[in-house]
């Protein structure tokens, strides 16, 4: 059985997904709230998300090799993340997956997995 990393198309497509995700975040007003949570330059964010997604999708554990356990919730605690920010992140990622033309079944599987992770990142009350 193939991993999501293999099904998505490996390193090249994971890079494209991350780039499209951050390009959308930078360009679309709908994602301004989450864009403001990031540094002016998205270079480090792009690199870290690529490395994280590589392992999360079942490919090389690049993030873990460089930084150790992701501790996602702990690393995101300095940022106020509520339903709005979660939803913006999800909508941005969904659009990035659609824009890359990922197969619908794979998109739905990833959407479910992303949703669980994004929902877990919430740390502020509405």
UniProtKB/TrEMBL annotation:
<dbReference type="GO" id="GO:0019825">
    <property type="term" value="F:oxygen binding"/>
</dbReference>
<keyword id="KW-0479">Metal-binding</keyword>
<dbReference type="InterPro" id="IPR044203">
    <property type="entry name" value="GlbO/GLB3-like"/>
</dbReference>
<keyword id="KW-0408">Iron</keyword>
<dbReference type="GO" id="GO:0046872">
    <property type="term" value="F:metal ion binding"/>
</dbReference>
<comment type="similarity">
    <text>Belongs to the truncated hemoglobin family. Group II subfamily.</text>
</comment>
<keyword id="KW-0813">Transport</keyword>
<dbReference type="GO" id="GO:0005344">
    <property type="term" value="F:oxygen carrier activity"/>
</dbReference>
<dbReference type="GO" id="GO:0020037">
    <property type="term" value="F:heme binding"/>
</dbReference>
<dbReference type="InterPro" id="IPR019795">
    <property type="entry name" value="Globin_bac-like_CS"/>
</dbReference>
<protein>
    <submittedName>
        <fullName>Globin family protein</fullName>
    </submittedName>
</protein>
<dbReference type="InterPro" id="IPR009050">
    <property type="entry name" value="Globin-like_sf"/>
</dbReference>
<dbReference type="Pfam" id="PF01152">
    <property type="entry name" value="Bac_globin"/>
</dbReference>
<dbReference type="InterPro" id="IPR001486">
    <property type="entry name" value="Hemoglobin_trunc"/>
</dbReference>
<dbReference type="InterPro" id="IPR012292">
    <property type="entry name" value="Globin/Proto"/>
</dbReference>
<keyword id="KW-0349">Heme</keyword>
């Amino acid at each position: 059985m193939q991993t999501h990393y293999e099904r998505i198309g490996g390193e090249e497509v994971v890079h494209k997904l991350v780039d499209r995700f951050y390009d959308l975040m930078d360009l679309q007003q709908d994602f301004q709230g989450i864009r403001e949570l990031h540094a002016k330059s998205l270079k480090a964010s792009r690199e870290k998300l690529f490395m994280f997604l590589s392992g999360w999708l079942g490919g090389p554990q690049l993030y873990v090799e460089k930084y150790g356990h992701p501790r996602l919730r702990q690393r995101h605690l300095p940022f106020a993340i509520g339903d709005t920010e979660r939803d913006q992140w999800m909508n941005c990622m969904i659009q990035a997956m659609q824009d890359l033309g990922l197969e619908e079944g794979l998109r739905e599987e990833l959407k479910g997995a992303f949703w669980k992770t994004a929902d877990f990142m919430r740390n502020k009350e509405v």
